[in-house]
Design a protein that fits this description.
The protein has eight helices and seven strands; from the N terminus they run βααβαβαβααββααβ. It is α/β, with parallel strands linked by helices and about 280 residues long. The structure holds zinc ion (ZN). Zinc ion binds next to loops.
Protein backbone atom coordinates (compact mmCIF):
# COMPACT_ATOMS: atom_id res chain seq x y z
CA UNK A 1 0.00 0.00 0.00
CA UNK A 2 1.37 3.38 -0.95
CA UNK A 3 -1.68 5.32 0.15
CA UNK A 4 -1.71 7.15 3.41
CA UNK A 5 -3.19 4.88 6.06
CA UNK A 6 -5.94 7.41 6.73
CA UNK A 7 -7.02 7.77 3.09
CA UNK A 8 -10.29 6.08 2.28
CA UNK A 9 -10.89 7.72 -1.12
CA UNK A 10 -8.95 9.03 -4.12
CA UNK A 11 -8.32 12.71 -4.67
CA UNK A 12 -10.10 14.52 -7.50
CA UNK A 13 -7.71 15.02 -10.43
CA UNK A 14 -9.93 16.47 -13.19
CA UNK A 15 -9.68 20.20 -13.77
CA UNK A 16 -11.97 22.41 -15.84
CA UNK A 17 -10.35 24.67 -18.42
CA UNK A 18 -12.90 27.34 -17.47
CA UNK A 19 -15.08 27.46 -14.37
CA UNK A 20 -17.58 29.83 -12.78
CA UNK A 21 -18.49 30.19 -9.12
CA UNK A 22 -22.05 31.36 -8.52
CA UNK A 23 -22.73 32.49 -4.94
CA UNK A 24 -25.26 34.51 -2.98
CA UNK A 25 -23.02 36.89 -1.04
CA UNK A 26 -19.57 38.44 -1.11
CA UNK A 27 -17.38 36.04 0.97
CA UNK A 28 -19.38 32.88 0.18
CA UNK A 29 -16.86 31.91 -2.50
CA UNK A 30 -14.01 32.40 -0.03
CA UNK A 31 -15.64 30.47 2.82
CA UNK A 32 -16.48 27.96 0.07
CA UNK A 33 -14.16 26.34 -2.50
CA UNK A 34 -11.62 29.20 -2.75
CA UNK A 35 -8.63 26.90 -2.30
CA UNK A 36 -9.89 24.65 -5.10
CA UNK A 37 -10.35 27.73 -7.30
CA UNK A 38 -6.84 28.94 -6.45
CA UNK A 39 -5.40 25.52 -7.25
CA UNK A 40 -7.17 25.23 -10.60
CA UNK A 41 -6.23 28.79 -11.59
CA UNK A 42 -2.62 28.10 -10.60
CA UNK A 43 -2.63 25.06 -12.90
CA UNK A 44 -3.95 27.06 -15.86
CA UNK A 45 -7.73 27.28 -15.52
CA UNK A 46 -9.65 30.51 -15.98
CA UNK A 47 -12.21 31.29 -13.27
CA UNK A 48 -15.02 33.83 -12.97
CA UNK A 49 -16.99 34.76 -9.84
CA UNK A 50 -20.67 35.78 -9.85
CA UNK A 51 -22.19 37.23 -6.65
CA UNK A 52 -25.97 37.39 -6.84
CA UNK A 53 -26.21 39.97 -4.04
CA UNK A 54 -23.72 42.45 -2.62
CA UNK A 55 -24.39 41.49 0.99
CA UNK A 56 -26.28 44.65 1.90
CA UNK A 57 -27.79 43.01 5.00
CA UNK A 58 -24.52 41.56 6.26
CA UNK A 59 -24.22 43.70 9.37
CA UNK A 60 -25.65 44.03 12.86
CA UNK A 61 -26.63 47.73 13.01
CA UNK A 62 -30.20 48.51 11.84
CA UNK A 63 -29.12 52.10 11.14
CA UNK A 64 -26.24 51.11 8.89
CA UNK A 65 -26.57 52.33 5.30
CA UNK A 66 -27.14 49.15 3.27
CA UNK A 67 -25.83 50.72 0.07
CA UNK A 68 -22.61 51.78 1.77
CA UNK A 69 -22.26 48.28 3.20
CA UNK A 70 -22.84 46.77 -0.26
CA UNK A 71 -20.16 49.00 -1.75
CA UNK A 72 -17.71 48.03 1.02
CA UNK A 73 -18.42 44.36 0.55
CA UNK A 74 -17.95 44.58 -3.21
CA UNK A 75 -14.54 46.15 -2.60
CA UNK A 76 -13.67 43.40 -0.13
CA UNK A 77 -14.78 40.72 -2.59
CA UNK A 78 -12.81 42.24 -5.46
CA UNK A 79 -9.68 42.27 -3.27
CA UNK A 80 -10.26 38.64 -2.27
CA UNK A 81 -10.90 37.66 -5.88
CA UNK A 82 -7.56 39.21 -6.82
CA UNK A 83 -5.84 36.99 -4.24
CA UNK A 84 -7.49 33.85 -5.67
CA UNK A 85 -6.82 34.97 -9.25
CA UNK A 86 -10.25 35.12 -10.90
CA UNK A 87 -10.36 36.69 -14.35
CA UNK A 88 -13.26 38.82 -13.13
CA UNK A 89 -16.21 39.30 -10.78
CA UNK A 90 -19.83 40.12 -11.61
CA UNK A 91 -22.28 41.50 -9.05
CA UNK A 92 -25.91 40.98 -10.04
CA UNK A 93 -27.19 43.38 -7.33
CA UNK A 94 -30.09 41.21 -6.24
CA UNK A 95 -31.44 41.99 -2.73
CA UNK A 96 -29.59 40.37 0.17
CA UNK A 97 -31.90 38.25 2.32
CA UNK A 98 -34.55 38.16 -0.41
CA UNK A 99 -32.84 36.24 -3.19
CA UNK A 100 -35.39 34.30 -5.23
CA UNK A 101 -34.91 31.66 -7.89
CA UNK A 102 -37.09 33.52 -10.34
CA UNK A 103 -36.87 33.98 -14.10
CA UNK A 104 -35.18 37.36 -13.77
CA UNK A 105 -32.28 35.84 -11.80
CA UNK A 106 -32.15 32.84 -14.14
CA UNK A 107 -31.80 35.13 -17.14
CA UNK A 108 -28.99 37.04 -15.43
CA UNK A 109 -27.17 33.78 -14.69
CA UNK A 110 -27.69 32.39 -18.20
CA UNK A 111 -26.26 35.63 -19.55
CA UNK A 112 -23.17 35.19 -17.32
CA UNK A 113 -22.74 31.51 -18.26
CA UNK A 114 -23.11 32.13 -21.99
CA UNK A 115 -20.66 35.02 -21.81
CA UNK A 116 -17.84 33.26 -19.90
CA UNK A 117 -18.69 29.75 -21.22
CA UNK A 118 -17.40 27.62 -18.32
CA UNK A 119 -16.93 23.83 -18.43
CA UNK A 120 -17.93 23.63 -14.78
CA UNK A 121 -20.08 25.70 -12.45
CA UNK A 122 -19.52 25.67 -8.68
CA UNK A 123 -22.44 26.59 -6.44
CA UNK A 124 -23.83 26.05 -2.96
CA UNK A 125 -25.69 22.75 -2.56
CA UNK A 126 -29.36 23.78 -2.68
CA UNK A 127 -30.31 20.61 -0.81
CA UNK A 128 -28.44 21.74 2.30
CA UNK A 129 -31.28 23.06 4.46
CA UNK A 130 -29.38 22.43 7.70
CA UNK A 131 -25.67 22.04 8.35
CA UNK A 132 -26.09 18.62 9.90
CA UNK A 133 -27.81 19.47 13.17
CA UNK A 134 -25.53 22.47 13.74
CA UNK A 135 -27.14 25.36 11.92
CA UNK A 136 -29.56 26.58 9.28
CA UNK A 137 -28.24 27.22 5.78
CA UNK A 138 -29.10 30.80 4.79
CA UNK A 139 -32.10 31.10 2.46
CA UNK A 140 -29.99 33.05 -0.07
CA UNK A 141 -27.43 30.21 -0.20
CA UNK A 142 -30.20 27.75 -1.05
CA UNK A 143 -31.75 30.13 -3.59
CA UNK A 144 -28.41 30.84 -5.30
CA UNK A 145 -27.67 27.13 -5.47
CA UNK A 146 -30.94 26.12 -7.10
CA UNK A 147 -30.83 29.16 -9.39
CA UNK A 148 -27.35 28.14 -10.55
CA UNK A 149 -28.49 24.57 -11.20
CA UNK A 150 -31.56 25.73 -13.12
CA UNK A 151 -29.50 28.20 -15.16
CA UNK A 152 -26.96 25.51 -16.08
CA UNK A 153 -29.62 22.98 -17.01
CA UNK A 154 -31.53 23.36 -19.17
CA UNK A 155 -31.61 27.12 -19.74
CA UNK A 156 -27.98 27.91 -20.67
CA UNK A 157 -27.84 25.09 -23.21
CA UNK A 158 -31.30 25.67 -24.68
CA UNK A 159 -31.26 28.29 -27.47
CA UNK A 160 -35.02 28.67 -27.09
CA UNK A 161 -34.69 29.73 -23.45
CA UNK A 162 -34.56 33.55 -23.32
CA UNK A 163 -34.29 33.55 -27.16
CA UNK A 164 -33.34 37.23 -27.25
CA UNK A 165 -30.00 36.27 -25.70
CA UNK A 166 -29.13 33.97 -28.62
CA UNK A 167 -30.39 36.55 -31.08
CA UNK A 168 -28.06 39.06 -29.41
CA UNK A 169 -25.09 36.74 -29.96
CA UNK A 170 -25.00 34.85 -26.65
CA UNK A 171 -25.18 31.34 -28.10
CA UNK A 172 -26.38 28.39 -26.05
CA UNK A 173 -23.63 26.80 -23.95
CA UNK A 174 -23.32 23.36 -22.36
CA UNK A 175 -21.84 23.36 -18.85
CA UNK A 176 -20.63 19.78 -18.39
CA UNK A 177 -20.28 19.60 -14.63
CA UNK A 178 -21.68 21.11 -11.46
CA UNK A 179 -19.66 21.07 -8.25
CA UNK A 180 -21.76 21.77 -5.17
CA UNK A 181 -20.12 23.01 -1.99
CA UNK A 182 -21.35 23.19 1.65
CA UNK A 183 -22.94 19.82 0.93
CA UNK A 184 -24.05 17.22 3.42
CA UNK A 185 -23.41 14.60 0.75
CA UNK A 186 -19.97 15.24 -0.81
CA UNK A 187 -18.61 12.76 -3.35
CA UNK A 188 -15.32 14.37 -4.38
CA UNK A 189 -12.31 15.74 -2.51
CA UNK A 190 -9.81 18.23 -3.94
CA UNK A 191 -6.34 18.30 -2.36
CA UNK A 192 -5.76 21.96 -1.46
CA UNK A 193 -2.70 21.54 0.75
CA UNK A 194 -0.79 23.99 -1.46
CA UNK A 195 -3.48 26.67 -1.59
CA UNK A 196 -5.25 26.64 1.80
CA UNK A 197 -3.15 29.64 2.82
CA UNK A 198 -4.48 31.63 -0.13
CA UNK A 199 -8.01 30.86 1.02
CA UNK A 200 -7.22 32.28 4.46
CA UNK A 201 -5.64 35.36 2.86
CA UNK A 202 -8.73 35.86 0.70
CA UNK A 203 -11.00 35.56 3.72
CA UNK A 204 -8.97 38.23 5.56
CA UNK A 205 -9.97 40.65 2.77
CA UNK A 206 -13.57 40.40 4.05
CA UNK A 207 -12.69 42.42 7.13
CA UNK A 208 -16.27 43.59 7.75
CA UNK A 209 -17.34 39.96 8.15
CA UNK A 210 -14.50 38.42 10.15
CA UNK A 211 -15.01 39.01 13.87
CA UNK A 212 -12.12 36.89 15.13
CA UNK A 213 -9.35 37.20 12.54
CA UNK A 214 -6.83 35.73 14.98
CA UNK A 215 -8.77 32.45 14.94
CA UNK A 216 -9.39 32.38 11.20
CA UNK A 217 -6.24 30.56 10.07
CA UNK A 218 -6.53 27.72 12.56
CA UNK A 219 -10.28 27.40 12.07
CA UNK A 220 -10.02 27.10 8.29
CA UNK A 221 -7.02 24.75 8.46
CA UNK A 222 -8.79 22.54 11.01
CA UNK A 223 -11.83 22.33 8.76
CA UNK A 224 -9.67 21.55 5.70
CA UNK A 225 -7.75 18.95 7.74
CA UNK A 226 -11.02 17.27 8.64
CA UNK A 227 -12.01 17.14 4.97
CA UNK A 228 -8.47 16.10 4.00
CA UNK A 229 -8.57 12.99 6.17
CA UNK A 230 -10.84 11.41 3.56
CA UNK A 231 -8.02 11.37 1.02
CA UNK A 232 -5.06 11.33 3.41
CA UNK A 233 -3.83 14.90 2.86
CA UNK A 234 -3.28 17.91 5.12
CA UNK A 235 -6.05 20.00 3.51
CA UNK A 236 -8.94 19.26 1.16
CA UNK A 237 -12.25 20.75 0.07
CA UNK A 238 -15.21 18.38 -0.20
CA UNK A 239 -17.57 18.81 -3.14
CA UNK A 240 -20.62 17.06 -4.52
CA UNK A 241 -20.02 16.44 -8.22
CA UNK A 242 -22.79 16.25 -10.79
CA UNK A 243 -21.55 15.16 -14.24
CA UNK A 244 -24.07 16.27 -16.86
CA UNK A 245 -21.99 15.51 -19.96
CA UNK A 246 -19.36 12.80 -19.50
CA UNK A 247 -17.40 13.62 -22.65
CA UNK A 248 -14.19 14.06 -20.72
CA UNK A 249 -11.83 13.25 -23.61
CA UNK A 250 -12.06 16.93 -24.52
CA UNK A 251 -11.04 18.03 -21.03
CA UNK A 252 -7.73 19.73 -20.34
CA UNK A 253 -6.38 16.93 -18.14
CA UNK A 254 -5.69 13.40 -19.29
CA UNK A 255 -5.32 11.98 -15.80
CA UNK A 256 -7.60 9.18 -14.79
CA UNK A 257 -10.78 10.38 -13.22
CA UNK A 258 -10.35 10.11 -9.49
CA UNK A 259 -13.83 10.77 -8.29
CA UNK A 260 -14.48 8.91 -5.08
CA UNK A 261 -17.25 6.46 -4.56
CA UNK A 262 -20.19 8.06 -2.87
CA UNK A 263 -20.72 5.31 -0.33
CA UNK A 264 -18.38 6.72 2.29
CA UNK A 265 -20.11 10.09 2.17
CA UNK A 266 -22.96 8.71 4.24
CA UNK A 267 -23.09 10.37 7.61
CA UNK A 268 -21.04 13.39 6.54
CA UNK A 269 -22.34 16.56 8.10
CA UNK A 270 -21.00 19.82 6.80
CA UNK A 271 -20.25 22.34 9.57
CA UNK A 272 -21.77 25.80 9.32
CA UNK A 273 -19.06 27.70 7.40
CA UNK A 274 -20.24 31.09 8.58
CA UNK A 275 -20.80 30.29 12.23
CA UNK A 276 -18.48 33.07 13.31
CA UNK A 277 -19.80 35.95 11.22
CA UNK A 278 -22.84 38.20 10.91
CA UNK A 279 -25.88 36.94 9.06
CA UNK A 280 -24.95 36.11 5.46
ZN1 LIG B 1 -23.42 33.89 2.64
Amino acid sequence: MTDSPTATRAHHAWRPERFMLIVAHPDDADFGPAATAARWIGEGSAGWLVCCTSGDQGGEDPDEDPLALAALREREQRAAAGIIGYAGVTFLHQPDGALANDLALREQLVREIRTFRPDAVLATDPETLFHGDGGVNHTDHRAAGIAAVDAVYPAARNPMAFPWLARDGLAAHRVRRIYLFWSNAPTTWVDVTATIGRKVDALRAHASQIHHPEQLDERMRAWAREEGAAIGVEAAEALRLIVIDADEETGPESETEAVAEADAAAGHEHPDPEADKPIA
